[in-house]
Amino acid sequence: MNLSFPCVITLYFINSTWMQRYQSNISENGLTLLWSTIVSIFTLGGLVGVSIGSTLSVKLGRRGTLLTNNCFSVMAALLMGLSAFAGSFELLIIGRLLCGINAGVALCVEPMYLGEIAPTALRGAMGMGTSIFLTVGIVSGQVMGLEEILGREEYWPFLLATTCIPAFLQLLFLPWFPESPRYLFIDRGNDEGCRKALVQLHGLAGSEGALKDIQAEKNNLVGFKARKPWELLADRSVRWQVITIILLNAAQQLNGVNAMYFYTQYVFQQSGIPTDKIPYATVGTGACECLTALTCGLLVECLGRKVLIAGGYILMSVCCILFTLTLALQHVSPVFPYLSVACVFAFVLSFGLGPGGVTNILTTELFTQTSRPAAFMIAGSVNWLSFFFIGLVFPFIVIGLQHYCFLVFFVVCSTVAIYILAAIPETKNKSFLEIQNEFQSSKKKTDVLPDEAEALLVSTTGRIEGSQEFYGASDFRQQTVVSGKQKHRCLFNPQGS
Fold first, then answer.
1. Are the C-beta atoms of 57 and 65 separated by less than 8 Å?
2. CA of 466: how far to CAs of 121, 209, 496, in Å?
3. What distance in Å separates the CA atoms of residue 314 and residue 486, rounded to the nearest whole number?
4. Helix and strand totals (H; E) in the chain
5. What superfamily in CATH does domain 1-125+146-177 come from?
6. All residues at 6 or more sequence positions from 394 whose CB lies less than 8 Å from its CB, including other chains
7. How far apart are the first and last CA of the chain?
8. Residues of the chain with pLDDT under 50
9. How many angstroms separate the CA atoms of 329 and 335, rounded?
10. Strands 486-492 and 477-483
C-alpha cells in the first residue's frame, strides 16, 4: 500500500534535515524511529491532556479550561508551521505532543460542558456536538490536504499550522457563553452566578425548572467533594457505571474503524479507482461519517441512546463478516471489489450512527456532578491507551491474519452489543439522579450502601417533597424496610422504573 501524502512529506523532511546537519543519510532504523515518534507522541499527549483536563475542569471550570486549552493548540500550530523553516523535526515532535494535549483536554472537558449546560430533553442532541464537529474537522483536514488546496510539498507547513483555526474561533465565541451552571452551583456554591447562567441558557421561563434539578442533585451530594479517579474505581456503588465507560471507550478504538480506514486505499485500488483519485474517495468516507454524526444528533432524542449505540455495534459486526468475505473473494469476480467498497462505507456509517457519538453522551449521563470529572479522566485514559495499543499491535495483526483480522473486530463489536443490550438502561429524558437511581435499582446491591450511593438513594422526606415538582410523573417516595436487625433504605418508583 502506498504511503499517504503527509507520511511521504514527513519522511522526506526528516531525511533532508538529517542530511543538512550531518552530511549523511539517516539509517532506515533511525528514520523509522523518528517517524514512529512523531506519530505516537500525539497519543501520549492525548493521555496527558486527559489527566490534566479533569483536574483543570474542577479548578478553572469547564469553560475556563476550554479557553485555557487553546494555548496548547496555538503553540502546536506555531511550532509545526515553523519546523520546515527552522529545519528542525524536533519542533514537529513537540508540536504533535502539544496538539495531543489539546485534543486530550478538549475531548475530556467539552462533552462534560455540553452535557451540563443542555436541557434534559436536548442533552443527547447537544452531546453529539463533540462527535459532529470532530468529524467536520476530519473532513476539513482531508479537504485541506487535497493537491488543489494545501496538498503540495511546499505547502505542508501551512497545512499543519491550520490546527490553530479552531482555537481562534473558540477564543472568539466561547467567552460569550456562560460557565456550567451545575459547576457554579454544586462545585463553587455560586448561587447568583448559577442563576444568571441559567437565565442566559434557558431564559426566565426555563431557568426555574433547571435550577430545581440542580438543587435536587446538590441536596443529595451534601458533604461530597469532587472525587479522584482512584476513589471512583474503589467505590462499589458505581462499579457497573465504571465498567460500562471502560468497556465502551476501549471498544471505540478497538472496534476496527481504524483498520477499516487502513484498508480503504487497497479496496479503492482493487475497485478500479485511479490512484490520483483515491484522496477524493477518502474524503467521501469522512463525509459519510460526518453525515451519520449529524443523523445521530437528530435521532438520539427520538430513538434513545441504547438503540443507536447497540444498533451501531450490531451493524458493524455484520459488516466485519461481509468485509472479510469480500476481501477473501477479491479475485473471484469483479463484483467483489465494489462490494468491499460498499462494506467500507457501511462500516463507517454504522460507527458514526452510534458508537462514534453516543459513547461520550453516556459517559456524561451515567455519573453525577462530583464523580463526572473523574469518570471522564478514566474514560479518556482508556480511550487514548486503546488508541495507542491498536496503533502498536494492528500492524502485527495484519501481518499474521491479513484480512481475517476483521474476525477479531467482529468479536469485539458483537460482545459490546450484547453487553449494551443486557446491562445499560436507557437514559433519554432523565435527570442525572434518575439515571443513577435506575442504574442502581437494576443491579443487586449490598446490605450497606457505601458513601455517595447512600447519599443519592437515601433522602429525607423533606428533600423528596421539595423535588416532587421536578420529578413529576416519577413520584419517588421513601420507604424503610426492616429486615432482622438491619434497616435498608431504598427508593421505590410506583411506575416501576
1. yes
2. 22, 12, 22
3. 45
4. 23, 2
5. MFS general substrate transporter like domains (1.20.1250.20)
6. 258, 259, 262, 405
7. 53
8. 1-3, 444-497
9. 9
10. antiparallel
Q: Are 8 and 64 in contact (CB under 8 A)?
A: no
CATH superfamily of 224-424: MFS general substrate transporter like domains (1.20.1250.20)
- State what percent of residues in the chain have pLDDT above 70: 86
For residue 230 the three cell numbers come to 482512584
- Tell me the one-letter amino acid at 122: L
Question: What pLDDT is stored for residue 223 in this prediction?
Answer: 58
Count other C-beta atoms under 10 Å from residue 87's C-beta: 13
Distance between CA 36 and CA 33 in Å, rounded? 5
- Provide the pLDDT for residue 256: 86
Is-above-0.90 flag for pTM? Answer: no
Q: Are 349 and 111 within 8 A, CB to CB?
A: no
Encoded amino acid at 396, one letter: F
CA distance 133 to 137: 6
CB 348 within 8 A of CB 285: yes
**Domain residues of the chain, as ranges?**
1-125+146-177, 185-219, 224-424, 432-492
CA nearest neighbour of 294 among 408, 101, 125: 125
Which of 196, 258, 199 is closest to 392 using CA atoms? 258
